[in-house]
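Bug #77: duplicate submission created two jobs. Keeping one. Sequence:
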Amino acid sequence: MVEHRLCKAGVRGSIPLVSTASRWSAVPVLALLLAGCGTSTTDEPTASSSAPASTAATSAPAPPTSSAAVPAEPVTTEQDCPYLDTAFVEDTVGQQTPTVTTTGIPGGPPPGCTFAKPNGEPALTVEITQAADGVAARTAAVERVAGIGGTAVTDIADGGGIAVGTSQTVLAVADGTLVVVVTVNQESSLQAREITQTVVAAV
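Kept job's structure:
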């Protein structure tokens, strides 16, 4: 479409084309023609001033997560043993044990107990661990004393072994899937047996 001649020649040169008698009737037509002079008449498409924005949202990669559970740390607390009365322990081992602590993992197997003498040395310790099954528990009990001259024990819980030395006695037995280990700081299988039977009956 080509620009109208009135736009190039100007309005003054075009007015004589209209007679005096019809001048007022031509005003609307002239106004319409002049209105089109200010606009571009080229048919060429105009390029976009900016590239289209990308609609793809970018996000930072999520940090890797570890599925491995972190093992809980054992907690030691100064308190009475849940399986053994302090007075009973003192009468059985023949020693004063004014300090009693328990050590265990929250949500884990029953906690162990330590009965300490006035100088802080343990007179008696009870350890309790969890095995996968009864066979694994008995195997662990026997192995606990095998390296220190242990002999078999068949009359306490599900059996295990005992090792009697000059400075300590260690008795380990299986109780279902639990492994109970009692250590007394003297040479006495009788004391170790009595304490172990009491613990097994309570857990």
